Target: Integrase catalytic domain-containing protein
Amino acid sequence: MERAFRRFVKPEIFNTDQGRQFTGAAFTGLLKEKKGQISMDAKGRAMDNIFVERLWRSLKYEEVYLKEYASAEDLRRSLKTYFEFYNLERPEPGSPKTKGFWGGNQSHQGRTSAEVHFGPNPIQGLAA
Model:
């Protein structure tokens, strides 16, 4: 995390869950030293970020756990390809095409994430 603070813009708010690695003095002390505001989810509030949790679960089981990456660049290329697939081609979870595999919203009716969020012409919405 110290390297990230040296290389990138400091976040105004740093949000985590209440896992041990995020509540320890080493972690919170560094954030306080850098004048970062700390925001922690309440215990047992995994549902607060269910969409992000679902994304990471999908990424792990549909991409990362299935492959061995030769380099960091290989990983970056693969993740870029996966996120393009996830947003532009993969039907939303719970749609008829996925048969409710990960649960999700039945009203998405087989649309991709980009179609759900940007309408029937998602590439135009992404470019805006």
